[in-house]
Every structure is written in C-alpha cells, then in structure tokens.
Design brief:
By secondary structure, this protein is an alpha/beta fold. Helices cover 46% and strands 17% of the residues. The longest helix is centred in the last third of the chain and has 26 residues. Bound molecules: phosphoenolpyruvate (PEP) and magnesium ion (MG).
C-alpha cells in the first residue's frame, strides 16, 4: 500500500513542474495551444489548435491536457478543482463566440467531448456528442431546429452517455430502437418521426434509470464532468490497452479531452458529414479522396451503416459509381473543403486524414491528422512529395516504416491462376490473403495461435475486434465503406481487407456464410484480393511482385544516405539472386550445412561421418568435394564479384544421421555397414544439449579433413569463377570460436589448404580472408585476442542470445519463461538487440576488436540483422554491414538509411 501511495504522489506532481496551464482554448483564429504540443494536447487537440491558428474554420472549444489524465487516474478518478475552474472559464468563452449558453433552455450550447491521445488510436476510446441536452434544452432546440432533429439528437446523446459514462450496455438501446422501427414498419432510423423519437427518449431515460438505479443527469455541468471523467477512464479500458500493446504506446502518455461546440451535419439536406484524405490512402495517388453522408451525424460515416457518397469523381468506386458527389450537391462547401485540404497538406507537409461537417451549407473542420495509408501508398506519397518539393529526399526516406516494406515484396494473387470469384466488395486495403473463414475475433486469435491461417469475416468490425484483426491474414466485411473501421484499421496494420461486400450473409447460428446461392462454412478456405475487392473460394496461388517506380526511387535515396552495407543470408544461388534483386551487397552468411542435407548428397555425408578411419573418411569427402565446389561456384556467380562469407560446417554431426529404425537399416544397407554399427555411431554422436558441445569449430578441430575439404572447395570454386582477374571475394568464417587457440589452429588450417590449392593453380588471384563469428559471450570478451587472428568479425546473435541469456525458444518461437510478458525485458531478445540486452556484449566485442585492429570489418548475421531496431543499433555502433534473409534486405536498407538520417540530424543539432 505504501508503495502505491508513493507512486501516486510522484505521478500527481508533473503538471505544476512542467506547465501551469491545464486547459487550452481555441476558436475564432486564436489558440492557446499549437500543433507542436502533441504530448500535452494529444494529436487531435494539438491539430485543432493548429488548424484554428491557420484560419481554417474550426468550431471553438478547449483541450484538457494529457497531464490531467495521469493526475486523474493517479488520484483515483478525481478532476482537480483548479481544472474545473479553468474549464468553466473556457466554456464561457465558447458561449461568447457562438452566442449560445450551456444549459440555457431557450438557446442551448451543446458540446462534443472526445478523447485524443498523443498517437492516433482510431475508435479506441470514447466520444460523446450533443452533451448539454436535457428535457428542457431539448425543447429549446426543438423550437430552433425542429422537434425531429432535437429528439434525434437527445436520444443519441442518452445512448452515448449511457454507454460511455454509466456503463449501460448499448444493446439495450439498440434493441429498443429496432423494436420501434419494426412496430412502425420502417427500416431506416431516418424514417422515424418526431413523436417516435420523443417516445424513444422517454424509454431511453427509463433504461438508464433501470440499469443505474438513478435518474439520467439533467444538469449539463454534471453531464460534462461525468463525460470528462469517462474519457480519462477510457484510457484504461481493454480496447485501449490492447491497442497500446499492439502499437507499443506507453501507458504513461494518457489522453487529452477535447470539448468543442457542436456543429450539426444532420439538420437537413443542406447538412452533411464526411471523412477525407488529401491523397488516396490505398494507392497514394495525388487525388483528394473521401466520402460523406448527407443529413448525418458524427460517427455515421465510419460506422458503415449507410453507404457513403463519394466527395468527387476521383473518389468513386464501382459501388458508388451512380451516386451524386459532394462537388455536385454542395459545390460551394466542396470548393472551400478543397481549399482547406490543400492548405492543410501544404502546412503539415504530410498526407492528412480530415473530418468535416457541413451545417446549413457552412463548412467546419473537426479534425486533421496524419493519414494512415497502405505501404504502397506510403512509398508513393513520400516519393511524390519529395519530387513536388514539399519535403527533402532525406525526409522522404524517414516517412516509410522499414518493417512495412516486406509486405510490398511478398506475393500477390497469381493473375494466371484459375479462380472462382464468389463476391466483390470495396478494395479497402491491398494485398492477397488466403485463409480459413473465422466468424469472430476470438476465434481468429485462437486459430492463428494454433498455427492456422485465417480470414476474419464479419458484418462489420468494431474496436472490440482488434485482436482478431491482428491475428488474421485478412478481413472481409459485409458492410462499411472505404473509411469504415475495418478499412482504416486494416490499412494501418498492412492487412488485406475487402469491406462493404453487400452480397455476404453471415449466419452466426449455423456458422455459415452465404453468397449468391453458395454456402461456405466456417473453416473453409477463401482468398481475398484487397486491391480489387474480389473474394474467391479456396486457396488461390500467389506471385512475387515486380519492384519499380516509387519503390526504386525511395530505395535509391535510402542507399545514397546510408553508411552501413546490407548483405544477405543465402545458401543457394536462387536465394542469392533473389537477394541481389532486393539490393543485397554481398552474402553475410552462407550456411554450408544446408547443402549437406540435400537428398542427392546426404548419403555421402553419412558415409563421411560413419567412416571407421581417416582413409575411409577422406574417400567420402572426395565425393563431397565436387558437389561443394559446384555449390560455391553457383553462389559466386550469382553474386558477381560481391563479397561472400562462407561459414565452415557448424551443426553437430548426429543431426545428419538417421533416427528411426527403418531409416537406420536403409542407410546401413546403402553403405554396406551393419545396422548395429550405425546405431552405435548415432548414440556416440548424440548430445544432451545440441546448442553447445561438439559442434562449430570444435568439429573442425576433431575432423580437420572436413574443414580442409570445404576450404579447398571454396578456393577452387573461386579460382574457377574469378579466373585470372580474381573477381570473387570469398570470406571464410569459423563458427563458435571461444578461445584464441581454436582460431589460431583453424586459421592455419585454412591458410595451408588455400596455399595448397593456389600452388596447384599458378597465376590465380584469389585471396580469401579469414574471420570468426562472435556468438558466445567469451568471444566478445576476448575479442582483442581474436582480432589479432581475424580479418573480420560477424556477430552470430542467434547463439549469442541463447548463450548470453541461457534462453532458448520452443517450436512456436516463444522463449520460456517469457521475459517480455514478465516485464524483465521490453523487447523480445530474439528479435531486437540493444544496449540493455545482448547489444552490450556486441559493443564490448566491437570495441575490443577495433582497439587492436582499427580496420577490422564487423558485421552481424543473426536474425537481428533484418530487424530495423537492431539495424539502427548496429549502425550507431559503427558496424560495416548487416546481413539478413532476402526479403528483409530492403527493410534493412531503409532502416540503415534512417539511422544515418538520425545521426546526421543529431550532428546538425549539436553544431547549432
Ligand atoms: C547465429 O548464431 O546467429 C548464426 C547466424 O548462426 P546459426 O543461426 O546458424 O546458429
Ligand atoms: Mg550460430
């Protein structure tokens, strides 16, 4: 308890320490906040202030800072009195600007109350509209704007307030609304009349009383405090927590609260509300792109209940082809919107996602923020903006998340494959998704955890589905437009999404999906093409995309600023070629054991291992030599003169031997040995811990003829491919070195064999370098001794992590116990290296090595070499190169460029 109290006290003080102001007013061209104050005002609040300063029409309002959220939650849910005073003052200012009064029965001011965190968390926290309505002000509003409008606004308010503040299940309201529509024989809410809505209001008030045991608060101030508190509390709800977890948003940030004068998009046919992007968020094309609904309020567009209309011709989809546009229906408001969006994009130098409302023909901007986009759009927008002169090339390089690039490189649907089209919806987020149908988010999560690929099929998605969307390959919804929840979230996650597929009928009871006479069951395979909106039955084959256009421009700019080289881990000429297409500048790790496992040669490998004496082993190795030489020649050719690091044999020998009885007999027969002998050898070579022991360089010490054969194969292949011009750069790497004696012995072995091969080929110019992996902690600690004997170091962070932490992973990739779940580490140590983790050993290794040998080449070839965070870490340490799997090469190139950009910016900042 004492600990808790201390923590609370500590958290309650920062406001006064940082800033005296807790409430920031904006309106009529003036704002106390600005766009630079995101930490304090949240993204939405900062941008409302900034838009106001820019002269963009924004309804007046104020923002209560994120620090108050932290204070509120630390104080057990109490709004500080001083904050209340400031709120009332700001409220009075709004009243003066809009000439209405909060709680005034004749001329009531209504406000919206919304959350707004530092990072955008779409739909994750709560919003309340029309606050200030009660029995009296509803009458007043009815006199001003008509009873239908007034009671529609009131019933919406009771529902939102009841749901968010009083925890009344929203189904209670919705069921009542559905019953009333059924009684009246109508389908749309809009078909209900003023009297119906008035009746609904009375019933909603009863529902609240029934659930809470108290009357619905009629005092607008009580409503306001209730709503502000609920928004602060919503920072702690499950949805928000899950979203924070997925997007690595710290809990300590808190959310701001924005209170703003209401403007209405639902006062009649000269009113509308909409969402737009300054560029197409799916393709990145430079067209103003959006949707709107006439006579609708707030969340109606995003909720996907009515099909929205396109704002202009460029926003039309196959489904909205026939609908009139905003440009046609409200040309004046559209023109102003066009002007505003241009202004905003120019000001922010970034693609904006904007929300607007048109009240009686007058445009109001409710929000602007950096627009979420697909990877493809992100690349195109960054490159286009640099070409338009809006941003520099260096900035363009920082605008794309490196890890997202991998999605661009992965396959799309094979255009030539036979496909069975069953439905078409909106192309909400591109990419191919092949998976089994699941009908709920929980099911998606469970099946994905069990290793299944799944496609989440829903009528529409809500923030409650976020974990299922994350787990699924793709998302298919029956309802909703291009800006629906499903579409926006899927694009953010880089997942394929087909939205608004109206032909779908989802039957939760029978667990079936019906489309135009066809029936699919949960668990059946389907394929989505998020770029075309098409849905196919079964598993459609996929193909790798061509890379060009904006992608190559961006990568060229990235290459121009990065310092760290990017190599690939590849064991075959095919992988090497693929990686070169993705820009690999060499091979950082060729694992020779994979070549040994090939069916055509495994028998020769086994013969070598089972050989009773040296002569027999050498006979078997002589069979393997030409095969290995062929492997290496193929890789050298594919890499066309770029450096190739080949690691001599690493895994323990028993891994190559047969295991089951049948297999043992088969091998014994093929080699003319007894089954008993083979079994005995398997037992002799098996070890308890295959991660350690008789493997790596220790194998090379026990069986020098294996390493000698491999060295010979490498040097002969290099001579063959490089010819007299010597245009190959072989680098021979020794694994698992832990002692200088091991390295000394094996270096001499490699040098002697190289010299022997070269003596047989006078005139050959091949000059292999010899280096070591640093993959056990001792190697990092004695790196100064190793550097005297090594031309290069390559950090094998897979083993370094396992041996450094004494951790290993299970088959599902989880390491036990999970240090991240337990809060011991912030990052999975098998994914990212940093100073707090295994990176500490890397720094020691690098510094020790370079102290002895300034020109020591240093790289990394563990899985971390393709992880953007780790790449940045290696770049900061001064690595020469990182090496990763082919698909991660562009990821690493971009991450390395961003590291260079960061370092440049830091240097510049230091100078000024
Ligand atoms: C490593 O240990 O990081 C490494 C690259 O070697 P392997 O993964 O083959 O053990
Ligand atoms: Mg290793």
């Amino acid at each position: 308890m004492a600990v808790k109290k201390r923590a609370a006290k500590k958290q309650a003080t920062p406001r006064s320490a940082k800033t005296a102001r807790a409430v920031f007013f904006f309106g009529n061209g003036q704002a106390q906040g600005s766009g630079a104050m995101k930490e304090l005002l949240g993204g939405k609040g900062a941008n409302l202030a900034e838009m106001t300063r820019l002269g963009v029409p924004v309804p007046p309002g104020f923002t209560i800072s994120t620090e108050i959220c932290t204070e509120f939650n630390a104080r057990g849910g109490k709004i500080p009195d001083a904050v209340k005073r400031d709120v009332l003052e700001a409220l009075a200012k709004i009243e003066r600007f809009v000439e209405k009064k909060f709680g005034d029965a004749a001329n009531p001011l209504l406000v919206s109350v919304r959350s707004g965190a530092r990072a955008s968390m779409p739909g994750m926290m709560d919003t309340i509209l029309n606050l200030g309505l009660n029995d009296a002000t509803a009458e007043g509003l009815a006199a001003q704007a008509g009873p239908r409008f007034a009671y529609d606004s009131y019933r919406r308010f009771i529902q939102m307030y009841g749901d968010v503040v009083e925890n009344v299940p929203h189904e209670r309201f919705e069921t009542r609304l559905d019953e009333l529509k059924e009684q009246r024989g109508v389908f749309q809410d809009t078909e209900l009349g003023a009297d119906d809505l008035k009746q609904l209001v009375a019933e909603y008030l009863e529902i609240v009383r029934d659930v809470t045991g108290k009357p619905f608060p009629q005092d607008p101030h009580e409503q306001l405090w209730g709503a502000v508190a609920a928004v602060f509390r919503s920072w702690q709800n499950d949805r928000a927590k899950k979203y924070r977890e997925i997007h690595a948003i710290p809990e300590s940030w808190g959310t701001a609260v924005n209170v703003q004068a209401m403007v209405f998009g639902n006062m009649g046919d000269d009113c509308a509300t909409g969402v737009a992007f300054t560029r197409n968020p799916s393709t990145g094309d430079r067209v103003f792109y959006g949707e709107y609904l006439k006579n609708a309020q707030g969340e109606d567009v995003v909720a996907g209940i009515r099909t929205p209309q396109p704002i202009n011709k460029g926003s039309r989809t196959a489904e909205s082809q026939h609908l009139p546009t905003l440009e046609q229906e409200m040309p004046r408001a559209y023109k102003e919107l066009l002007r505003v969006q241009l202004r905003l994009e120019k000001h922010y130098r970034e693609m904006q996602d904007i929300e607007f409302t048109i009240e009686r023909g007058k445009l109001w901007m409710l929000q602007t923020r950096t627009g979420k986009r697909t990877v493809k759009a992100a690349v195109k927008i960054a490159v286009d903006m640099a070409k338009e002169g809006l941003i520099s090339k260096d900035v363009a390089v920082t605008r794309v998340a490196p890890e997202s690039l991998e999605k661009l490189l992965h396959p799309t649907l094979d255009p030539d494959a036979a496909k069975e089209l069953i439905a078409k919806g909106l192309p909400a987020s591109p990419g191919a998704a092949v998976g089994r149908i699941v009908l709920s988010a929980d099911e998606a999560e469970q099946r994905a955890k069990a290793g299944d690929k799944v496609v989440l099929v829903r009528i529409e998605t809500s923030p409650d589905d976020i974990h299922g969307m994350h787990a699924a390959e793709g998302i298919l919804t029956a309802r909703g437009g291009m800006t629906s929840h499903a579409a926006v979230v899927a694009r953010g996650m880089g997942k394929s999404c087909v939205a608004g597929c109206g032909a779908l009928r989802i039957d939760a009871a029978t667990r079936e999906v019906r489309v135009g006479g066809q029936v699919l069951a949960a668990g059946d395979w389907i394929t989505l093409d998020g770029a075309s909106g098409e849905v196919f039955r079964g598993q459609v084959p996929t193909v790798t995309p061509e890379l060009g256009g904006s992608f190559s421009d961006l990568m060229r700019w990235a290459d121009a600023i990065r310092v760290v080289k990017v190599r690939t881990n590849a064991d075959t000429p095919a992988d090497a070629e693929l990686a070169r297409r993705f820009g690999a500048e060499g091979i950082g790790l060729c694992r020779t054991e994979h070549m040994f496992f090939e069916p055509s040669r495994i028998l020769a490998v086994r013969e070598m291992i089972l050989a009773p004496d040296l002569a027999a082993r050498e006979r078997a190795l002589a069979k393997l030599l030409p095969m290995q030489r062929g492997d290496f020649a193929g890789i050298f050719r594919a890499m066309a003169g770029l450096p190739v690091t080949i690691r001599l044999l690493d895994p323990p020998l028993h891994e190559f031997l047969p295991h089951g009885d049948d297999e043992i007999h088969e091998v014994a027969e093929a080699l003319g040995e007894s089954a008993a002998m083979v079994r005995a050898k398997v037992e002799e070579l098996s070890e308890f811990n295959p991660m350690l022991g008789h493997r790596g360089c220790r194998l090379g010490i026990s069986f020098p003829e294996i390493y000698r054969m491999q060295t010979r194969a490498i040097v002969e292949a290099a001579c063959e491919v490089g010819g007299a011009r010597g245009r190959v750069q072989p680098e021979i790497m020794l694994p698992l070195i832990a002692h200088r004696g091991e390295l000394a012995l094996l270096r001499k072995l490699v040098e002697d064999e190289t010299a022997a091969v070269l003596r047989e080929r006078p005139g050959a110019k091949v000059k292999p370098t010899i280096g070591t992996m640093i993959e056990v902690p001792r190697a990092a600690l004695i790196a100064d001794q190793l550097a005297e004997l090594a031309d290069f170091f390559s950090f094998g962070t897979n083993d370094l992590t396992q041996t450094g932490y004494a951790l290993s992973r299970d088959d599902a990739g989880k390491f036990l116990p999970d240090y991240v779940d337990r809060g011991i580490l912030t990052d999975d140590p098998f994914v990212s290296v940093d100073e707090e983790g295994i990176g500490a050993l890397m720094r020691i290794g690098l510094e020790n090595g370079r102290r002895v040998r300034g020109d020591l080449k240093v790289g990394i070839c563990g899985e971390h070499g393709g992880d953007p965070k780790s790449v940045r870490f290696c770049a900061r340490l001064g690595f020469d190169y990182v090496s990763c799997s082919p698909f991660r090469v562009p990821v690493a190139r971009l991450a390395a460029a961003q590291a260079a950009a960061e370092q440049l910016a830091a240097k510049r900042a230091k100078r000024t």
